[in-house]
Write a structure and sequence with these properties.
six-stranded antiparallel β-sheet; 21% strand; rod-shaped; 465 residues; Helix Hairpins; alpha+beta; 15 strands; Beta-Lactamase
Length: 465
Amino acid sequence: MRSVLNSIKGRLFLGVFLFILVLLIIRGLFIYHEIQKDIHHLLKLSLHSKIQILKGLLHEEDGIIKLEPSEIISGEYFIPRSGHYYKVLVNGKVLAVSPSLVEDDFNLVSGELESHDEELGERVYTSIGPANEPIMLLHYDFEIFDKHATIYAAQSLEDSYLLLNRFKNFFIVTIPVLIFIVALVGLWIAKRSLKPLKIFSSKIERITHRTLSERINIEFQPEEIKGLAVSFNDMLDRLQKAFDSEKRLIADASHELKTPISVIKTQCEVLLQKDRSKEEYTRALNIIKNTSDSMRRLIDDMLSLARLDSGILLYSDFKAISLNSCLKQAIKLAEVHAEKRNIKIHISFTEDVTALGDKNTLTEAFLNIIENAIKYNIPGGMVNISILKNISMVEIKIEDTGTGIKGHDIQKIFDRFYRADTSRSTEGTGLGLSIAKAIIEANNGEIKVKSEVNEGSCFSVFLPV
């Protein structure tokens, strides 16, 4: 049972089955009740008609009320205990009794009162007849020739009950058959309805890391599955992008680490060939140290990117932070590098601006951009930092007076490990701007760049206030 409830097909089938079952039972009971009501109504009309005939046959002769039985004693009323009876009383005395009743004193009104019509003077009873059969009796009181008269007309309910029992038996037999048919039809409908989902599932199963570029054809999907197919294709796009990014990161990292490892290996091999002087050992160790530092920076940057790719920054963890504080801390960390190259950093903001984000990562992003502006600046150049605020956004501009970026390089400078030809000789990992861009986007921001060769570059960071 649990496996059926855990299946969409099972739930659909069970839902249709129970709905049809309840519907058939309610409909059957309603029809049964209506048939019973109609039969009783027809019997009541028949008895009313008989009473009116009996009433019309009453007449007075010489002050005595008489009934001409020869005109009505025919057919079923003549056969003893036939199930059709009548009795006529005047002033409480029996005037006429149908031969079918046999016993004149048989009490027809010994059953249960079903209905009472005061206006017509009629009462309807259900009782037991002379042959121990169920009967319906109509009791009619009226005044005639200044005397009180009562007429009883009764008719057997056996045929009616037999008809109702036949219907009940038919209903009992038909319902299971109909339920069985409905179950088969419901099962067929469930299978047909869920067939597209099964095909959709089989297509998903065929997609692996080797076939990640495959997509679900949305055009031929049912309307109910199109939304799911679109969402799944979007998920595959994101997965493929992350997978390609990971492969590219591994390939680039392997390439970037190959050179420093070769340098370290070469220096070690040279030192091990023969005894060296103290100065040679010192020079080789310094080369190994500097190379190791470059490798450490590269690995740290790669770890930063990996953490950002894993979604370490969550919007729910963001807090209101001071952008002025982030920028000042980043400037303080970059001052040593700026002093070595005689670069001046100019600040053009005074008002404290607050934004929602992560302070540590935003500080790291600003530091990477400022260090980039210092690294590719001209000796004695300048870096200008300003903040522009409007209703919903704040723009942080970091401008330098450096060599600028060529047009074909602008679109690629945020790519991982990408370094323009003019910066190949400059120390760095090629990941600084990639990290900055990833951090800013994780903080619901955006970064743009404008640059002119030999005139400098301007990086603009947009963050929601």
